C-alpha cells in the first residue's frame, strides 16, 4: 500500500516530498534547480520573466548535471487595460524616484512582452516533467497540449475556491499558498481580483480546509523553513511541501548579498504584502521603495505594466547591491533561512523531518495518552 | 524523563495539552469551562468584561462541577485618551445605525468601567490556578500578588518581540497567537500599537521563531480545529495548543444561533481583521456592521470606549438573533467547527491527535527514508 506522500513522490518521480519553490526574477538558477533535483527533491524554475530561448538554455543546463525531474512555473497572462492618464500620481512618483536614483525613466517600458505561448512551446519541446502555473488556469488548449506531452500539471491556490477551480480543471496537484509565503500571491479568483481584498488565509487554516475540499494532492507552502515545518504540514493533510525562502540562503540561488543579508536580519514582522513593485500583491521585506510608494499604492498601473515600469530602477539597485530599491521578496519566517548549499539543505531537511517523526513516535510510545 | 509537553501538563496540572481559549463576552460559560477542564483540558474564562462579582460566581460554579484546574483571562487596561470631537464622523455613523436599528443611542456609554484591580482581587481570593492576560503585561505588583497566590501566569504574544517581553517578565507560559486566530489580537508591542500595522504573522511562521527566541513554554493558537492541527503545532515546537473557535460549536458555549450558523457557513476567506467593533483589531466573520462602518474605520474612538459605544447595538442584535450587527468573532478555519458537546469534542481531539501520531509512526516505519 502506498501512502499519500508516496503517491506524490511517484507522480513527480522524486525521492522526497520537498519542492524548491519556483521564484521568478533570476533566483532559481540552473545550478539551484539541478542541485535540489539531484538531491531527491523537485527543483523548480520561476520562469515567468524568462525569454523562451533563455528558458530553453536553462532547462538544457539542468539536464547536463542531472537526470532527475524538475519543475517550470509560468505566470498565466491576463488581459491588461492600461491607461497612463489614470495613474498620473504614480507615474510622477516613479519619475521622481528614478531621477533621485540617477536612472533614466525613459528606460522603463510599459510594454510587457507576452511570451506565454512561446514559453509553453519550449516546455513541450523540452519535455519538462512538471509544469506549474501562478495567477490562474491557462486556456484548455494549452493544458491539453501539455498533458499530451506528459507534463504533470500543478496550480497555485490561495483559498479554497481557487483550489476547487484547479481541481475542476483536472490539475494533478495543487500548491496551497499560505499567507506567510514570500513573493507574489497566486490569487486569481475573479471576484477577488477586482478588489484589494485578496485572500489572506494562514497556512494552518488554509491547508485542512483545502484538503477537505478537493481530492487532488495538496502541497503546502508559506513559512515552511525546516523539517519541523515539513512534518507539521504533512500532519495537516499535505502530501508534500514547497519551500521558497528556505532555498534563498543557498549560494546557488541568484540573489544579491544585500537581499540575502536582509533575510537573515529581518524579524517576523518586517515583511509586508505590497503591490507597489509589480501591480500585484507580493510579500517582501519592508524597504525604502515600499515606503516611498506608499502614498500612491491605491492607484497603480496593473500587472505586468507596473512590473516593467519599476524594472530598470530595481535592476540598478541590484547592480549597486542596495536593498533600498530591490523587491526583497521573502516569507514571514525569513529569519530562519540558513546558509547551506542546496544539497546540504536538502539533506538537512530530510534528516530533520525524520527526527521530527521519530520524536513524535517516541512521544507516542512514552506518553500513550500523552 | 519528562517531555516538554508533559512539563506543560504538569505546570497546569492537566491531562492533555489542550486549552479551550478564553473568549470574552459570555461565550465561555461556567458549563463550557467545567466540561473542558473535567475532560482533562484547561477550560478558560474570557473574563475581560465580567463584573468582579459575576466572575466570582462563575468561578464558584465551575468548582461545583469539577475539581480540575481552569484558567481566567483578563484584558490589561490601557490609558485612554478619548476626545469625542475628534471622532465626529464615527459617532454620527453610529447614531445613524442605532436609529436605523431602533436602539436609543443614549444607552451607549463612553464610560468603560475599569474593573481590572477588582477582577485580579477575585482571582487571588478564589485561588484561580491559571491566570492569563491579553493586551500586555500588568504592573509588577499585580504580577507578584498573583505569584504569591500560586497562580500560574500566561501571556499572549502576536510577534517575537512581545514573546521576549513576556519571557523577560517571567511569565510561566506564552500563547503564540497566529494571524489565523479569531477575536481580539493580543498585540501590545508599543511601537506597533501606535500604527495600524499590527503584527500579522501566520502561525506557521510565528511559532518556530517564537520558540527559538524564548525558553518559556509556547502554546500555539490560531486556526487549530482538530487533532491534526494539534499535532502540527507540537511538531513546530509548541508544547500545547489553545483552541477557541473549535469550542464555539459546543452547546455549552454562550453564543447566539445566528453566530453559530455563521461559523458553519463561512468560507476560509470570509473573516477579516476589523477595529470597528471595539477600537482594537479582532478577527470576525464579515457582516453588515463591518460594511456600514467601513467609511469611518480610519478614525475611531479608542478601545474600550468604542466597545462600550457599540455595546447596546450588539446586545439588541443578539436579542434578535440577527448576525448583521453582532461581532461574529471567528478564526480563519471556522468552517471546520463541529457540533459536539465539550466533553465529546475533547475526546475527539485527543483521539485524532493520537491517530495523527500513530499515522506519522506508521509512515516512518513504512517509508524509512519516506
Topology:
Two copies of one chain form a homodimer.
Chain A: H1 4-12, E1 18-20, H2 30-38, E2 43-46, H3 52-65, E3 70-75, H4 88-101, H5 116-125, E4 130-134, H6 140-148, E5 152-157, H7 160-168, E6 173-177, E7 183-184, H8 190-193, H9 203-213, E8 218-221, H10 227-235, E9 240-243, H11 257-265, E10 271-274, E11 282-285, H12 288-292, H13 305-320, H14 342-367
Parallel strand pairs in A: 1-9, 2-3, 3-4, 4-5, 5-6, 6-8, 8-9
Antiparallel strand pairs in A: 7-11, 10-11
Describe the structure.
- Two copies of one chain form a homodimer.
- By secondary structure, chain A is an alpha/beta fold.
- The first copy, chain A, has two domains: 249 residues, TIM Barrel; 115 residues, no CATH class.
- Helices cover 42% and strands 13% of the residues of chain A.
- Chain A is built from 14 helices and eleven strands.
- In chain A, the strands form two sheets. In chain A, strands 1-9-8-6-5-4-3-2 form an eight-stranded parallel β-sheet. In chain A, strands 7-11-10 form a three-stranded antiparallel β-sheet, with no helix packed on it.
- In chain A, helix 2 packs parallel to helix 3.
- Chain A is globular and about 60 Å long.
- The interface between A and B is large, with 64 and 64 residues.
Amino acid at each position: 500500500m502506498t501512502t499519500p506522500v508516496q503517491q506524490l513522490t511517484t507522480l513527480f518521480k522524486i525521492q522526497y516530498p520537498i519542492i524548491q519553490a519556483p521564484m521568478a526574477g533570476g533566483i532559481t538558477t540552473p545550478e539551484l534547480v539541478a542541485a535540489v533535483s539531484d538531491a531527491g527533491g523537485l527543483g523548480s524554475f520561476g520562469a515567468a520573466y524568462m525569454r523562451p530561448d533563455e528558458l530553453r538554455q536553462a532547462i538544457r543546463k539542468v539536464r547536463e548535471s542531472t537526470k532527475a525531474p524538475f519543475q517550470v512555473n509560468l505566470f498565466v497572462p491576463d488581459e491588461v487595460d492600461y491607461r497612463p492618464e489614470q495613474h498620473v500620481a504614480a507615474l510622477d512618483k516613479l519619475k521622481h524616484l528614478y531621477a533621485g536614483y540617477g536612472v533614466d525613466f525613459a528606460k522603463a517600458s510599459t510594454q510587457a512582452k507576452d511570451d506565454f505561448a512561446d514559453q509553453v512551446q519550449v516546455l513541450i519541446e523540452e519535455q519538462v516533467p512538471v509544469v506549474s502555473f501562478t495567477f490562474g488556469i491557462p486556456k484548455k488548449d494549452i493544458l491539453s497540449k501539455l498533458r499530451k506531452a506528459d507534463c504533470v500539471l500543478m496550480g497555485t491556490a490561495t483559498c479554497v475556491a481557487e483550489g476547487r477551480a484547479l481541481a475542476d480543471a483536472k490539475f494533478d496537484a495543487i500548491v496551497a499558498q499560505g499567507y506567510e509565503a514570500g513573493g507574489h500571491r497566486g490569487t486569481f479568483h475573479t471576484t477577488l481580483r477586482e478588489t484589494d481584498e485578496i485572500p489572506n488565509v494562514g497556512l494552518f487554516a488554509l491547508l485542512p480546509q483545502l484538503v477537505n475540499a478537493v481530492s487532488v494532492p495538496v502541497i503546502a507552502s508559506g513559512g515552511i523553513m525546516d523539517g519541523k515545518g515539513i512534518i507539521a504540514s504533512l500532519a495537516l493533510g499535505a502530501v508534500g511541501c514547497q519551500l521558497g525562502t528556505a532555498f534563498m540562503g543557498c549560494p546557488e540561488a541568484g540573489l544579491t548579498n544585500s537581499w540575502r543579508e536582509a533575510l537573515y536580519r529581518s524579524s517576523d514582522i518586517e515583511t509586508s504584502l505590497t503591490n507597489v513593485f509589480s501591480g500585484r500583491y507580493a510579500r517582501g521585506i519592508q524597504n525604502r521603495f515600499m515606503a516611498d510608494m506608499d502614498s500612491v499604492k491605491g492607484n497603480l498601473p496593473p500587472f505586468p505594466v507596473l512590473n516593467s515600469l519599476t524594472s530598470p530602477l530595481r535592476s540598478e539597485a541590484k547592480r549597486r547591491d542596495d536593498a533600498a530599491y530591490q523587491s526583497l521578496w521573502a516569507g514571514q519566517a525569513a529569519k530562519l533561512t540558513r546558509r547551506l548549499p542546496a544539497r546540504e539543505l536538502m539533506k538537512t531537511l530530510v534528516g530533520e523531518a525524520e527526527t521530527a517523526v521519530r520524536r513524535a513516535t517516541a512521544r507516542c510510545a512514552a506518553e500513550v495518552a500523552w
